[in-house]
Structures are given as structure tokens and as C-alpha cells.
């Protein structure tokens, strides 16, 4: 249990708590919209379709935030390289790692939400 927590918390803090938190919020919002969409599938199809669109938008926002944080991380890494003149490759690799963590988490958020969106779309066609 402790190992699992360390595997999740360490990359979260290394990726930058602010941007990773924003991406996590987008994931949670997407899941909430999907749950509301699934729960209103039989009773209110229009609400279900609205929740589907909102889930798609919030998952896309998480993806875009991940890539925005990635670009910011790359700019920061290049700034440190420029300031040092002849940089240590380990410092540059650390900046690249931070950049890729946010992009990867944004992609993971998008994939998780997209799976739910595909399932909800498939069920909406049956109703």
C-alpha cells in the first residue's frame, strides 16, 4: 500500500503540483459528468447527451493542460541550459522528465475519460 502511494505521489509532485492538480480536477469532473450521464440514460436522454458533451470537453481540457505544462517545463529546462552555458546532462534530463510527466498524465486523463465517453455513446444509441 505504501509502495503504491509512493508510486503515485512522487510523479505527482515531480510534475508540478499546480498543473498536476488542475489535470486531476479535469479527470474528476469528467468522471462526475460521465456518472451523471450514465445515471440519466434511461430517464432523461437529453441530460445524458449534455453530460456526454461536458465530459468530452473536460477531458480535452485535461489533455491540453498536460501539454501546456509540458511546454512550460521544456521552456524552463531550456532556460536553465541557457543560463548555465555548458549544462550537466542530468539537469537537462530532469527538466525533460518533468515535462513528460505532465503530458503523460494529461494523456492518461484523456484516455480514461474517452473510454467512458465511448461506452456512454454506445449505450445512448440503444436508447
UniProtKB/TrEMBL annotation:
InterPro entries: MotA_ExbB_proton_chnl. Keywords: Cell membrane, Membrane, Protein transport, Transmembrane, Transmembrane helix, Transport. It is found in: Cell membrane; Membrane. It holds the Pfam family MotA_ExbB. The chain crosses the membrane at residues 18-39, 60-78, 98-120. Residues 61-123 form the MotA/TolQ/ExbB proton channel domain. It is a multi-pass membrane protein. Coiled coil: none annotated. Its main location: membrane. Belongs to the exbB/tolQ family. This is MotA/TolQ/ExbB proton channel family protein.
Amino acid at each position: 500500500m505504501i509502495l503504491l502511494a509512493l508510486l503515485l505521489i512522487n510523479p505527482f509532485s515531480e510534475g508540478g503540483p499546480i498543473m498536476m492538480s488542475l489535470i486531476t480536477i479535469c479527470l474528476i469532473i469528467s468522471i462526475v459528468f460521465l456518472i451523471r450521464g450514465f445515471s440519466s440514460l434511461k430517464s432523461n436522454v437529453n441530460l445524458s447527451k449534455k453530460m456526454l458533451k461536458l465530459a468530452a470537453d473536460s477531458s480535452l481540457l485535461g489533455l491540453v493542460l498536460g501539454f501546456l505544462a509540458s511546454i512550460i517545463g521544456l521552456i524552463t529546462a531550456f532556460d536553465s541550459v541557457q543560463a548555465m552555458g555548458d549544462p550537466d546532462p542530468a539537469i537537462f534530463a530532469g527538466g525533460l522528465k518533468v515535462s513528460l510527466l505532465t503530458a503523460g498524465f494529461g494523456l492518461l486523463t484523456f484516455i480514461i475519460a474517452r473510454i467512458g465517453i465511448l461506452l456512454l455513446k454506445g449505450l445512448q444509441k440503444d436508447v
